[in-house]
């Protein structure tokens, strides 16, 4: 048996562990464990590992010796040593932020980083507030569903559509029911016909495995109701304006003849 000997590294202790592989004999394995009192440094090429944070480096955290500096108003100030760029930012009581670290030299900008972070947070909150979250509900039918069960599930579908959610209607087949997929198609077509204008079919019925699916979505009733009065008002507006503008103004000579004040040709 060939054995090799290696010198233990700094901060490690060699030990011997006996692992019995058979009742009559055992084998010995060298193991190594770290000394908790000694700190060892991993090989990262002589530099600290790059942080996984997406935050930009600011002020003293910028490692580049020089940078291309941009003023607070967006003007190009030129290339400065990092110490001079930090001094310019400190004179204005502002921060210097590295916005393009991969450029040569890196591009930095003078700004109020705390105010910038606050504005970004407010924009994200406003964007989340105006997001419309579409919820998808699922209702399951069987090909041989009873009439009363069908009506109950149909009421649930209508309730979900009124709440603004999409509904995924599923027909579940079992055993030999897979030989008659037309029974499920009849139920889906009947449901779509009974819902009428309250829903639209986004995904036509299709079979996936032992199930048949159809996705329906609510129609935009509110927009239709709001647009109808506006269209009626816009169609009536020109007629009203025309009635107001057609005013009969009597001629000046006709008014004088009616009052008898028209002078005769011989009178001067």
Description:
This protein is an alpha+beta fold and 268 residues long. Among the domains are: 59-115, Translation initiation factor 3 (IF-3), N-terminal domain (Ubiquitin-like (UB roll), Roll); 136-218, 2-Layer Sandwich (Translation Initiation Factor IF3). Helices cover 34% and strands 26% of the residues. It has six helices and ten strands. It has helices at residues 82-91, 113-129, 147-162, 182-195, 221-245, 252-259, and strands at residues 12-19, 27-34, 66-70, 76-81, 95-100, 107-111, 136-141, 166-172, 199-208, 211-218. Strands 4-3-6-5 form a four-stranded mixed beta sheet, covered by helices on one side. A four-stranded mixed beta sheet has the order 7-8-10-9, with helices on one face. Strands 1-2 form a two-stranded antiparallel ribbon. The longest helix is centred in the C-terminal third of the chain and has 25 residues, at 221-245. The chain is rod-shaped. The relative contact order is 0.06.
Give a quick rundown of the structure.
The chain is of the alpha+beta class and 268 residues long. The protein has helices spanning 82-91, 113-129, 147-162, 182-195, 221-245, 252-259, and strands at residues 12-19, 27-34, 66-70, 76-81, 95-100, 107-111, 136-141, 166-172, 199-208, 211-218.
CATH class of the domain at 136-218: Alpha Beta
Instruction: Say what the CATH topology of the domain at 136-218 is.
Output: Translation Initiation Factor IF3
Strand order in the largest sheet: 4-3-6-5
Full CATH superfamily name of the domain at 136-218: Translation initiation factor 3 (IF-3), C-terminal domain
The total strand number stands at 10
CATH architecture designation of the domain at 136-218:
2-Layer Sandwich
General form: rod-shaped
Low-confidence stretches: 37-52, 237-250, 252-259, 262-268
Which structural class do the helices and strands define?
alpha+beta
User: How confident overall, as mean pLDDT?
Assistant: 74
Taking Cα atoms only, what radius of gyration do you get, to the nearest Å? 42 Å
Individual helix count: 6
Biggest beta sheet summary: 4 strands, mixed
SSE topology string: EEEEHEEHEHEHEEHH
Helical fraction equals: 25-40%
* Percentage of residues in DSSP E strands: 25-35%
Q: Tell me the span between the first and last alpha carbons.
A: 151 Å
């Amino acid at each position: 048996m060939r054995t090799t000997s290696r010198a233990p590294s700094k901060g490690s202790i060699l030990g011997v562990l006996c692992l019995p592989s058979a009742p009559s004999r055992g084998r010995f394995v060298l193991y190594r464990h770290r000394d908790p009192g000694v700190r060892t440094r991993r090989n990262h090429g002589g530099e600290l590992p790059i942080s996984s944070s997406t935050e930009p480096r600011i002020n003293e955290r910028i490692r580049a010796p020089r940078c291309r500096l941009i003023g607070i108003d967006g003007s190009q100030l030129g290339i400065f040593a990092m110490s001079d760029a930090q001094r310019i930012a400190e004179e204005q009581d502002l921060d210097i932020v590295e916005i393009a670290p991969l450029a040569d030299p890196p591009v930095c900008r003078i700004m109020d980083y705390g105010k910038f972070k606050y504005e970004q947070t407010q924009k994200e909150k406003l964007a989340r507030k105006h997001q419309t979250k579409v919820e998808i509900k699922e209702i399951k039918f069987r090909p041989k569903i009873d009439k009363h069960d069908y009506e109950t599930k149909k009421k649930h579908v209508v309730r979900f559509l009124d709440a603004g959610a999409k509904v995924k209607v599923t027909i579940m087949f079992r055993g030999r029911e897979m030989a008659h997929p037309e029974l499920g198609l009849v139920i889906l077509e009947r449901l779509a016909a009974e819902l009428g204008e309250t829903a639209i079919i986004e995904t036509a019925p299709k079979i996936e495995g032992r199930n048949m699916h159809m996705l329906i979505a609510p129609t935009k009733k509110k927009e239709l109701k709001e647009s109808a009065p506006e269209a009626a008002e816009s169609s009536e507006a020109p007629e009203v304006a025309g009635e107001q503008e057609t005013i009969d103004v009597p001629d000046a000579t006709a008014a004088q003849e009616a009052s008898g004040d028209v002078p005769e040709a011989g009178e001067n």
